Amino acid sequence: MVKPSSLFNPISARNRRASLRALLVLVVDGAIAVVCFWLAMMLRFDGELIEPYRSTLVAFAALLVFVRALASFLFRLHRWSFRFSGLADGARVAMAGLAGTGIFLGVFFLIRESGPPRSVVVLELLLSTTMMAAVRFSPRLAGIYASDWTLSHKDGKLRTVIVGAGSAGDMLLRDLQRSASHSYQVIGFVDDDPSKHSHVVGGKSILGRVDDLPGIVRNFRIDQVLIAIPRLDGRRIREILSTCADLKLRFKILPVSFIYLHQRAAAAAMQDLAPEDLLPREPVRFVETGDRVSLAGRVALVTGAAGSIGSEICEQLLRAGIGRIVMVDMNENGLYLALRRLERVYPQTSMKLEVADIRDAHRIETLFARERPDDVFHAAAHKHVPLMEDSPCEAVKNNILGTRHVARAADSSGAERFVYISTDKAVRPTSVMGASKRMGEELVRSMDRRSSTRFCAVRFGNVLGSAGSVVPLFQEQISRGGPVTVTHPDVRRYFMTISEAVALVLTAAYHDYGEMCVLDMGEQIRIVDLAKHMITMVGLVPEVDIVIEFSGLRPGEKLSEELMTEEEERTRRATDKILVADCPSPIEGIDARIDQLAVAAGAEDPPRVIALLEGILPSYSSFSQDSAPTTWHDATDSSAKSA
């Protein structure tokens, strides 16, 4: 009995349609062979066949139909993709044509019979191959022209220029030409390679150099720029944005990962140009630098696991195959959301949440004694510079005392390594936050000298997109229509992405480079330039559509940051894009000094806390507590720490 469900099987139906389509293609190839053979005979004999070829024409044609169909089958020309055919497919057509002609001549050689004249064989080969290629490629060409015509008459079309006429640009154009379901009407390319100028790629001209973009945009009324150079230097991107700042363009770019994801369509990979694309270096990835590390079976404990840095540490550890993670934070809602996000991607990995305050020494000691972590990543900290200027006692309790609690617990529980996340603001600090992080560094270095646990500090600059950082603030201000507030026109900062900041942390941790590691972050970026570039990236003109206002330096804020002190600079060495410094001996009697800070902070005595910090850290120079009140709407300076 036939089951009702078998009367119509979608898969069987698709297979039948595919088989009929393949058979039709073979029939067309046979018809092409007949027509081209007849044309070749007519051309050879001036339109009138002579004997013996007149009587053998049908036999020759029948044999040719068979060998052409056989060659098409052998080279899988019957399974042709009319939409996605390319150069390699064209080569298959040529090889099938040669193979068919070779088989045709081989038959006559084996039966020792004379075949058609050699000139007819050559003419038929050229005509048949050309016709088979035309039949296969003409639908795609027609689709391209139809797509261009549709886009040229489409409401809301974006006249587009592609930056980069290389393989990625060519792939992007071909992806766009296959469909009219987007709004990009590609006008042409720009490329800095002089050898490509005056060339045509995919039917689109190379209009000039990248530096010619402003003139090209005006002459061709360009609305959108697609950057098809996945590893274009951040400095070059900033130059492009600067030259196009008054043109109201929108920008998209192929991500760096595109070069590793060839199965993904270039058009689908395009993403809006983002602030991280402006960074002046290639990112560091733990999956590349950490491939010698085996994390299977290890237990990692991460403080501040609900924050930007802490949650990224958890994710990259899971990606690298960590055995189990203990996620610690005071923010229970943030912990829960982070767990849900990570469980969706890594459902087989053991993750445990612990709501704990690092200022509670007994709670932290108990937690470590129970979990016995192998690796500890201390990312919990108060990070906001102006807020900590107003609350120095809280900075001491959390950033200094909390760090000591976690470090001592790691030591007593027998952890193998402890990684302390620091900031460039700890170098010659001018803020309470920076001074508290410097004290954390000194504590960690002191612990490293008297503990079997390997302690190290990892220092880096600002993180793009972290909670409380300048990028989301600028984005929110731009979305409101401005103004964008910057403290000072000459303020400069080092920047890095969250992912590469964490890659640095993990690389430094598991390769045990030394007690003080710093990412080689290249050049600093002016905050006002970052603001202008972010305005330009959304198609607006700085100082015309969005005003930039300067509010003045705030308490504890520097014009520029440093990554190392002079002593550290003299001893630094570079490994895997990480600078490792041999630091001088840590502060003598640091535990007693921290005890003094604890007493002052517990008594809520900010002047005493400031005085003690200045006495402990000769390089620390505080701002006057009588300075003007802090304004919070222009927070353009925050550290790289996860709260």
- For the record, give the distance between the C-alpha atoms at the N and C termini, rounded to a whole number: 68 Å
By DSSP (H or I, 4+ residues per run), the number of helices equals 21
Q: Report strand order across the widest sheet.
A: 10-9-8-11-12-13-18-22-21
CATH class of the largest domain: Alpha Beta
Give the class from helix and strand content and strand pairing.
Answer: alpha/beta
Helix content class: 40-55%
CATH superfamily of the largest domain: NAD(P)-binding Rossmann-like Domain
CATH topology of the largest domain: Rossmann fold
Total number of strands: 22
Strand content: 5-15%
Q: Into how many domains do the coordinates divide?
A: 3
The pLDDT mean sits at: 80
Per CATH, the architecture of the largest domain is 3-Layer(aba) Sandwich
What Rg, in angstroms, do the CA atoms define? Answer: 34 Å
* Biggest sheet layout: 9 strands, mixed
In short:
This protein is an alpha/beta fold. Helices cover 47% and strands 14% of the residues.
Keywords for this structure?
disordered C terminus, 3 domains, 5-stranded mixed sheet, alpha/beta, 21 helices, 643 residues, 9-stranded mixed sheet, Rossmann fold
